[in-house]
Amino acid sequence: MKILRYLLVPVVPIYFMVTWLRNKLYDMGLKPSESYDFPVICVGNLSAGGTGKTPMIEYLVRLLKDDHKLATLSRGYKRKTEGFVLADAHAMAESIGDEPFQFYNKFQETVKVAVDSDRRNGISELRNLVDKPEVILLDDAFQHRKVQAGFNVMLTTYSNPYYNDIVLPTGDLREPRSGAKRANCIVVTKCPLDLNEESKQAIIKRIKPTEDQAVFFSSIVYSETLYTESTSHNIDDLKVFTLVTGIANATPLVDYLNEKQLKFEHLNFKDHHDFSEKDIALLSGKSCIVTTEKDYMRLKQYRVLKDKLFYLPISVQIDKAEAFNDLIKDKVKR
């Protein structure tokens, strides 16, 4: 795969120019972008996946749900439906996508969860509901320029910051680095919990934020408890297990489990992997399976895995969280 990426280096300038020109047309108003008179918050990135958008959306939901009627709107990657879909009791990962299904499972009592590849249409559909949301959180819509969000939260990882990267297909950037200027807030994600102030300032210097851009740092915190639909166990109680991942970057999770000196084999699938009958047959022969919450949304439908499938939740810990929370709440209030 890496060799192929290097072979495609001649395509990089073409991709760069196409995406740069597209953004320029939106910036100049030559391509239409719709803005709204109610709060629309976009969480996205410049990189192709793996920056922590899902836990950030969940963080914002918990921050705002007690004071506002909320909705999340995602594309619904790899779902087997089309158009606008509002999650209900019949929703599955296949119908709305694994990440929206995760949102629905956690927040269905207080938050509307919808999918639509056309975010502008999705926003319109949500606002036409009788009990319409007051605030809409757009999941992974930073490049969806047809919608002009009122506030853009752009994520970039500590291990692979956008300023060290180049555009696809050789790099991981969906658009040139200059796209970061559209962000109102930049969050460096998946940082070490002990990241010192000197290192943070060095990163901020590389980001070169504008006067209007805030920069924050966040870390992933893994739960000590594993869950199934009906039970829970302390992760340290597991003797031997199989780790199953279908996410963009499983390295932080693997490192965490290794640090706890746990014994496991790792079956690493591609991001948003569509588990086949052969995969399920393989997993059914395992005595204990630990997976991510996102992968659990795709796997829990298989009854042969019911008594052996556990997921490990994660949460976001934001440095200077009070300042971050106040910034978001202030924007919503305005």
From TrEMBL:
UniProt GO MF annotations: ATP binding; lipid-A 4'-kinase activity
Keyword terms of this UniProt record: ATP-binding, Kinase, Lipid A biosynthesis, Lipid biosynthesis, Lipid metabolism, Nucleotide-binding, Transferase
Positions annotated to bind ATP: 47-54
Pathway, per record: Glycolipid biosynthesis; lipid IV(A) biosynthesis; lipid IV(A) from (3R)-3-hydroxytetradecanoyl-[acyl-carrier-protein] and UDP-N-acetyl-alpha-D-glucosamine: step 6/6
Reaction catalyzed: a lipid A disaccharide + ATP = a lipid IVA + ADP + H(+)
Enzyme Commission designation: 2.7.1.130
InterPro entries documented for this protein: LpxK, P-loop_NTPase
A GO BP annotation: lipid A biosynthetic process
Coiled coil: none
Gene Ontology cellular component annotations, sorted alphabetically: plasma membrane
HAMAP family: LpxK
Functional description taken from the UniProt entry: Transfers the gamma-phosphate of ATP to the 4'-position of a tetraacyldisaccharide 1-phosphate intermediate (termed DS-1-P) to form tetraacyldisaccharide 1,4'-bis-phosphate (lipid IVA).
NCBIfam families: lpxK
UniProt record similarity statement: Belongs to the LpxK family.
Full protein name: Tetraacyldisaccharide 4'-kinase
Organism: Pseudotamlana haliotis
